[in-house]
Amino acid sequence: MFRILYIEDEKEIGQWVTKELTERGFEVRWLESGEGVEKYIGFADVVILDVMLPGLDGFSIGKRIKRENSELPILMLSARTAVEDKIEGLNFADDYLTKPFHPDELVARVEVLLRRYQKNDDVLELQHLKIHTKELRVINSNDSEEIQLTGKQFYLFQYFIRHLNQILTKEQLYEGVWGEAYIEGDKTLMVHVRYLREKIELNPAKPLIIETIRGIGYRVKL
Q1: 28, 6 in Cβ contact below 8 A?
Q2: Interhelix angle for 11-23 vs 103-118, to 10°?
Q3: Which residues pair with 51 in a beta bridge?
Q4: Which residues fall within 8 angstroms of residue 220, CB to CB, at 6 or more apart?
Q5: How far apart are CA 127 and CA 144, in angstroms?
Q6: Is residue 136 very low, low, confident or very high in pLDDT (cuts 50, 70, 90)?
Q7: Would you say the pTM of this structure is higher than 0.85?
C-alpha cells in the first residue's frame, strides 16, 4: 500500500480527495496546512500539495519538502491556470494539476510519479541483510530468503533506512511512522522495535542492526 501525504485546506475538497484515494487503495494522511510538515515527510511515498494554503503557500512548503527529501515526488494542485504559476511550481515539483480535476486523472498522475521514483532499485547491504530500498524487500543473505514484514514493521524499517546513521528520538519515530504525537510511557514503539528485531537480527538479544541509544531512541548504522 502506497502512502500519500495530502495538504489541502479546503475541507470539502480534502474530504472528497481523501475518500477517492482511500477507496483506490492508498493510505492518506491529510493535513490542512503545511505547519510541521517535516515530521510527516518520512510517512510519504508521494505528496499532493495545494498551492493556496493558510500561512506558508504551497510553493514554499514544496521547496521545504524537497530540501528534506529530494527524491520524494510532489504533485502540485492549484486553481491557478497562469503559465507563470505552473512554471514556478515545476521548478521544484514533479507534476502540476489544475482544479477542477477528475479523480481518475489525479490517480493516474500519482501512479506515474510512483513508477518514476520506484523504477530504479538500489540494493543496500546491512550486516547480513540485502535491502532493496525502493520497494523495501529485505533478503537474508545467509539463506537468500525474503524476510516478511508486517505493514507497521515495513514502515518502521523504511523510516530507519531513510535516516541511516541518525539518532532518532522516540518522538520522531512515532510521529514519522504513526503520524501522531508520541505520549510518554506508550510502549507501542518499543514493542514494534522488538518484533522487528526478531525478524531481522541474527540475535535479537544482542542487536547489531537497530541500536538502542539509551534515554533517547534508536539508530540504524551503515
Answers
A1: yes
A2: 60
A3: none
A4: 126, 160, 161, 163, 164, 165, 209, 210, 211
A5: 14
A6: low
A7: no
Contact between residue 53 and residue 9 where contact means Cβ atoms under 8 Å apart: yes
- According to the model, what pLDDT value does residue 211 have? 96
End-to-end CA distance of the chain: 27
* Residue 17: alpha-carbon gap to chain centroid: 18
Q: Which of 200, 193, 191 is nearest to 129 (CA)?
A: 200
The CA distances from residue 97 to 33, 48, 86, 113, 125, in Å, are 19, 10, 9, 13, 38
Amino acid at 67: R
Say if strands 95-98 and 74-78 run parallel, antiparallel, or are unpaired. parallel
CA distance 128 to 141: 5
Sign of the CA dihedral with 2 first, then 150, 14, and 58 last: negative
